[in-house]
């Protein structure tokens, strides 16, 4: 089977999630560096909490999974689940949110692993290919991994509400 591109994508998904990579950062490393007592805190009003960021990344992964499965997928930036509040996420619970987040990458990998590289050129909607979808998802993950790092840095400051110290 010709799936070198698929295998490369799977490797990238795993790298960003939990493996060693050139960035020397991944979601698992970041998440495990913070205690559960901080995951629902916003270090500044304009910054999202760790739980909000993880939930946001998760809902877009789920949206991508739905598209890969050929299901109806209509998430938009204005959808209420795109950015759930900390109160909503506390009801879900941090352990449940983490579990679903980590599982989402394995679900994506499972859906991709038996595909040939030609699958990536197929369109899931109008002019958008599965390659565009998966590459966009990786970019989205990396973008929010960076935000997660900034949030954690602020949370770990002695007094994270005072900038410049």
UniProtKB/TrEMBL annotation:
InterPro entries found in the cross-reference section: DinB-like, DinB/YfiT-like
Pfam families: DinB_2
Residues covered by the DinB-like domain: 29-148
Spans traversing the lipid bilayer: none
Superkingdom, taxonomy of origin: Bacteria
Name assigned to this protein: DinB-like domain-containing protein
């Amino acid at each position: 089977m010709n799936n070198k591109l698929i295998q490369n994508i799977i490797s990238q998904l795993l790298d960003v999630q939990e493996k060693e990579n050139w960035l020397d950062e991944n979601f698992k490393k970041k998440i495990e560096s913070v205690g559960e007592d901080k995951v629902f805190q916003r270090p500044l009003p304009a910054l999202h909490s760790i739980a909000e960021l993880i939930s946001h990344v998760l809902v877009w992964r789920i949206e991508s999974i739905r598209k890969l499965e050929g299901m109806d997928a209509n998430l938009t930036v204005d959808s209420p689940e795109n950015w759930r509040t900390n109160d909503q996420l506390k009801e879900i619970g941090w352990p449940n949110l983490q579990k679903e987040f980590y599982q989402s990458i394995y679900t994506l990998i499972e859906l991709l692993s038996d595909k040939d590289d030609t699958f990536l050129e197929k369109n899931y909607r109008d002019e958008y290919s599965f390659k565009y979808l998966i590459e966009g998802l990786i970019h989205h993950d990396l973008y929010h991994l960076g935000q997660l790092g900034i949030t954690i840095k602020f949370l770990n400051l002695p007094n994270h509400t005072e900038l410049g110290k």
